[in-house]
Amino acid sequence: MIQENLKERLLPVSNYMNNRRLTSQNQQALSFGIGLVFFVCVLISLVSLGWWLSKILVNQESSPVNSIVISGEMPYTQREEVLDAMSHIDLGNFFQVDVNDIQTQVSALPWVYSVAVRKQWPNEVKIYVVDQTPVALWNDDFLLNQFGKAFQAEKKVLKQALPEFFGPEGSELLALENFINLNDLLEYRNLTIDELVLSERFSWQLTLNNGVRLNLGREERVKRVQRFMDVYPLIKTHLAEQEKQKNNDKKQLKQAVDYIDLRYDTGLAVGWKQVTNLSSSINLKEQQKLNLTVMLQSYMFQNYACINNVFKSNALQTKELVLNV
Known about the structure:
Elements: H1 2-61, E1 67-73, H2 79-85, H3 99-107, E2 112-120, E3 124-131, E4 134-138, E5 142-145, E6 150-151, E7 164-166, H4 172-186, E8 193-198, E9 204-208, E10 213-217, H5 221-246, E11 254-261, E12 268-275, E13 292-296, E14 303-312, E15 315-324
Parallel strand pairs: 1-3, 4-7, 7-8, 10-11
Antiparallel strand pairs: 2-3, 4-5, 5-6, 8-9, 9-10, 11-12, 12-13, 14-15
C-alpha cells in the first residue's frame, strides 16, 4: 500500500519532468530551424549583392568619359587647343584612361608651362593648366619665361611689348638676372631697358627706351650704370641749352645722344646723332647717325667735363663744357 501511494505521488513529478524535457527539445529544434533559415537568407542576400555589384562594375568599366573640365591660368592657351591635344586619346573607358598620357599631350602645347590631370568618378576628367609667363624675347626666335627658360610660341598673341635679349646659348638666366637688376636701377631715372645684348665674349650692351645705347663692357656693370645715371641729367641739361641757342634757326638739325660708352675707368664717351625732329613718335634708332663723339674724361665726385664736337663750315671745332655738380 505504501509503495502504491508513493508511486501515485511521484507520477505527476515524472510527467512534469518529461513535459519539460520535451519542451526544451522543441525550443532547441525551433531555434536551430530559425537560425538555419536566417543563415540561408543572409547567404542568398550576399550572393545577390555580389551579383549586383559585379554587374555595376562591369557596366561602369565600359562607361566612357562624358565630362572634361578645363581650368587654370591660361591667358594664351585656348580650351580648343587642349581638346585637340587629347583628340587621339581613347576616352571610351573611364578606368582605362591614362592621366599621364593626357598630361604629356597637353604639356606639349607651346604656351603651356605645367598641367595637372585627375579623374573624378564616375565619368569626369579634370585638367588644370598654367601658361608660361613671357618676360622677354630671346634671339628673335624664342621667348623667355620668368625662370629664364627659353621656349617657342606664337608671338602674335602677346598682350604687351617685351624687351629683346640677344646672347649665346645657355646664357638665358644670366641675361634675365642682369636685366632685372639693371632695370630696377634705371627706374630711378624713369628709364627702362628695351634691348639687352650679351656678346660671345660676355660684353654687355643696353638700349634704353629713350633710344640711348649703353656700352658696359664685361666688368663692373652696376657701377657703370650708376655712373651713367649720375651723368645723364647733365647731358640732358647740355642738350637743352643747345636747343635754346638753335631756336632761331628752325631748319637746323638738332642733337640727340646716340650712345654712351662706359668702358672707361674715370670717364665715359658720348656719341651724338642729329635729327630733324625729336618728337616721341619718331624712333631715334632709324634716324641717320653722325659720327660726332664727345669724350667726358673728367668724371670725378664734383666735376664733369663734356667735350662737344660739331662740324661748322666743313671745319672741326671743339668746345669744352664744364658741368659742376
